[in-house]
Amino acid sequence: MLQRALQIVEDEGLHVAIIMDGNGRWAERRGLPRVAGHRAGGEAVRRVVEAAPDFGITTLTLYAFSSDNWRRPSREVWALLRLLHRYLRAETEKCVKHGVRVNFVGRRDRLPPPLRAEIEQAEAVTAGGRSLSLRIAVDYGARDAILRAAEKLRGEAAGEVTRERFAALLGEAINDCLPARDVDLLIRTGGEQRLSDFLLWESAYAELLFTAKMWPDFDREDLAATIGEFRARERRFGSLTQLVAG
Ligand code: FPP
Predict the structure, then answer these.
(1) Smaller CB count within 10 Å for the chain: N or C?
(2) For residues 29-40, b (16+ Cβ closer than 10 Å) or e, as one string?
(3) Residue 118: CB partners within 8 Å, gap ≥ 6?
(4) Residue 188 to residues 15, 76, 101, 106, 198: CA-CA distances in angstroms?
(5) pLDDT single digits (tens) 84-136
(6) Ligand 1: nearest atom to the Cα of 192
(7) Does domain 2-140+184-245 have CATH number 3.90.1640.30?
(8) Would you say the C-alpha torsion 96, 140, 215, 117 has a positive or negative sign?
(9) What is the reported pTM?
(10) Which atom of ligand 1 is nearest to the CA of 26?
């Protein structure tokens, strides 16, 4: 069973999730407005998406806007949402060309309708992408997602309560087209060491990697280094080394 789980992980490629922290500090250190940091963060997103398939990553989940980020000053909130809208407009064609499937995960009902329309369009035209599944978490919070999935489960008349069923409902709860997938490696930039309500169910056995680098400075070499460190770690999934290896 464990061997099979590991085999599936290998066959599927890696699921890497990133908490892209440090945009604001990056900008403030340069005497720039925080929004400039988010813009530079958008460039880092382009670099990492381009590099990801070269490192065996088949699913990449990026935390772009948490449900708690609505508490930021409205200028910053709208600048971030505008940035996401522009990113989609500028990158969708490239994603189609490079086989990148784009999905937004999180709530949609609080997003501005034009952004929602752009998201739906990007998801539709990139749906056939097979080289990378790029999931952008927007208005996302893991605890609320888990609650919504639990609510769905409660509404089901019959059926067994299994992890697989719950993962399927969790996928639905965040508007994903697939069941929730376990995270292999979770990276957080910016020096803080916490999960900030990101992919709590999916990260049960994720390797956690924290780096002091600010997100706008993160590049292909940093991704290579983090993947190298991940590969050097021993994953036991609660078992013993010799059993996992055997
Ligand atoms: C955290 O840094 C970062 C965010 C809240 C936004 C992340 C968004 C991007 C990288 C922009 C574009 C995204 C895509 C997918 C195109 P922070 O502002 O909390 O930084 P700080 O801790 O230094 O203040």
Answers:
(1) N
(2) eeeeebbbbbbb
(3) 85, 88, 89
(4) 14, 21, 23, 19, 11
(5) 999 999 999 999 999 999 999 999 999 999 999 999 999 999 999 999 999 99
(6) 22
(7) no
(8) positive
(9) 0.92
(10) 23
